[in-house]
Amino acid sequence: MERWERWEVRAADVRAALAPGEALVAEQNGVGMYDRQEKAPLRAAGIAVLTTHRLAYVDAAQAAEQSCFVRLDAIRQTEHYAGFLKSSPKITIVLREQTAAPSGPWTCAVCNFQNTKATSLDVCALCGVARPTEAPSATTSAQESASASSNTASASAVPEKGCPRCTFLNHPAMTHCEMCEALLTAPPAPPTPIPTASHAVAPTSPPYVKLSFRKGGDKAFYAQLRSTLQSKPWLVEPRRRPAAGIDGVLSQDMAPVAPAPDAFQDLEALMKQAKQMVDLAATLRTQLERRERLLAHDGKQSHDDTGTMIQSALVQLGLAAPAVTPEMVKSEREYHVELARELASLLTAPNGMLDRGVLALDEVWGLWNRARGTALVSPKVLRHAVAYLPEVTTPPIALRVLRSGRTILYTPRFADAAFEARVYEHLATPQTTLQLAAAEQLPLALLSELLHTVAQQTTRIVRDDCDLRDTRWFRNTVLIAT
């Protein structure tokens, strides 16, 4: 088990034991290990774990003693065996031979680039060629000098090639004469000594292990392993992107996608019970809608707690209640109020649509209809519903029309007084519009409109409009002096 390190971890604690920046890629239970061609008797049943930085085996019986891992940068080659008859599928992991890692600067033999420090794989920073390994010196200085002299003697013993036409002595590697380009004949090769038993060296194979998948899952695990080895995620360094400008927009679009790989890690386990949950949700929803239709047809009102019980059960299961439609309420005003409550639950939820404090109304309309599915609302109904938002939200969410005609929803954090005070604090030193957008984490166009609106209503903030540069904002020092 060369290159494998001990890992004191249980199967349930794998995620918690990962290093910073390391993420779980795949897991598969029912896996045994082979050390080369021999079975590892103490590692016969466990879980194969693949992360962005290592391949690990977590034993099911003795996790703290028998669990181990190997770093992905130590893997040289992988092979897949599909199994035959009673032989289970296997994945062979061939490792690089462990050599003494040379330290210090070195020069690439291919591109002649001066590398100042070694990377995790000891490759050239310019062309990517691996650093040449240095054989460990185990001989004395006398043996080294003797070896050098013998190499010099053997090199000088190689005769030069004489040209049969012009008798010019050419280098032994030349095939044509450098003077007359005549074809050169190879000199007679010296007799090759036959190695004796004392000089014969037994060939050594690189270290490797086999993972035996006795419960299947080998193809998916091998595909994830190959993909991870090709992408080399252990070499990727995360970058922090600004929150304003084009990079800010791209970061916001990519933010919901980033947790997707981790979110779908347990998808296989979730789908085992998904059918039961879907059937239960459909049954409860059908009972609720049937009851509401019967009561509406008879013109009666229910005084029992059946509807409340069903709605509560849906909430406890984490399933969304049916979208509000005009048939569920008596009057148009009640319909708009219920829509306002539904919209408020989306806006005020953790990491909801209004998490940043201000949002354009057209964006709210698109996101809300996407969440409602097929029960869409028109822009006219949306305008009627948002009028009731201050009554059903705490803190109140209000509607505002900017000078350009753009309509937004905002929280008290972006009311005129609060926004003006916050901008005034930012202007301890002069700031551009882009710098203020980064500080407030708002789109540049939206923040520019808010700034111009506040500047027209107050005398504490002034601006310097530049044709060739961004607008700069200052505190009104003249007003402060007076």
TrEMBL record:
Name the UniProt record assigns to this protein = Vacuolar protein-sorting-associated protein 36
Q: Which gene encodes it?
A: VPS36
Give the family this protein belongs to, as stated in its UniProt record: Belongs to the VPS36 family.
Keyword annotations from UniProtKB, A to Z: Cytoplasm, Endosome, Hydrolase, Metal-binding, Protein transport, Transport, Zinc, Zinc-finger
Output compositional bias ranges, type Low complexity: 138-157
What InterPro entries does the annotation carry?
GLUE_dom, PH-like_dom_sf, Snf8/Vps36, Vps36, WH-like_DNA-bd_sf, WH_DNA-bd_sf, Znf_RanBP2
What are the leading ranks of the lineage? Eukaryota, Fungi, Dikarya, Basidiomycota, Ustilaginomycotina
Q: Name one GO biological process term.
A: protein transport to vacuole involved in ubiquitin-dependent protein catabolic process via the multivesicular body sorting pathway
| PROSITE patterns linked to this entry | GLUE
